[in-house]
């Protein structure tokens, strides 16, 4: 018996790929409902746009950021609930703010570097405090994720969209004082807009590169390109993919005549020392 995708599955695949309803339905039927394989199939056929790293938002909530006064550390959290109405209530907002402060001071350094559920918070554990507010509002709540950076040799900066749905935390090492802080804020703004995978090409997972290579090989074969030039075309497609998805190669959102890497090099020259983006975290409400 053939697989029959649900309207919800078709809608999610459309959101991920930008393909039409009929194409999404056929891809899901062919892959027995496997969302990842269906997206890859559509791309091989040249139907889909480059797949987004996450599907449509599955929940409501907020991203909240807390930075230390000296600019050397900071934390960011995502707290989810079921409806936009609850996300605007005083209890939810207070919990989100308190969680951000707690993470900024107490969480392991990194992005989702370890659970904080059992840490002491509001006279109980973090998990118990979230459950308590959840019960009070009558909606399920999830402390989805957090990030914390500490940068004694530079700055930690952030960007938070006005609606609290997208937030970025970035750690930058180097000299520069206020100029370094301004640069870090520009980098955070860029990350929020351009959604890079990592700082440089070494940050892209090998399995992702292999997936892109498989897709490119099938596309080139389907186009009927001569065998002797296919490998070169595929390599070019992979280089283009990497350039588009890593931070330092992307055109800077405030001035697309230069890359983010160019921006950093210019700042380093002016400061008289190396400047390196050591890492970043980008949270969008509802995305994994």
Secondary-structure map:
Blueprint: H1 7-17, H2 21-30, H3 35-44, E1 60-67, E2 73-81, H4 84-87, H5 90-106, E3 110-111, E4 120-121, E5 124-125, H6 126-137, E6 142-150, E7 154-160, E8 166-173, H7 178-194, H8 206-222, H9 227-245, E9 251-252, E10 255-259, H10 260-271, E11 276-284
Helix pairs in contact: 1-2, 1-3, 2-3, 3-8, 5-6, 7-10, 8-9
Describe this structure as you would to a colleague.
- With 288 residues, this protein is of the alpha+beta class.
- It has 2 domains: 56 residues, Ubiquitin-associated (UBA) domain (Helicase, Ruva Protein, domain 3), CATH 1.10.8; 152 residues, 2-Layer Sandwich (Tetrahydropterin Synthase, Chain A).
- The strands form 4 sheets. It has a 4-stranded antiparallel sheet with strand order 1-2-6-3. A 3-stranded antiparallel sheet has the order 7-8-11, covered by helices on one side. The chain has a two-stranded antiparallel ribbon with strand order 4-5.
- Helix 1 packs across helix 2 and helix 8 crosses helix 9.
- It is flat and about 65 Å long.
- About 2% of the residues have low confidence.
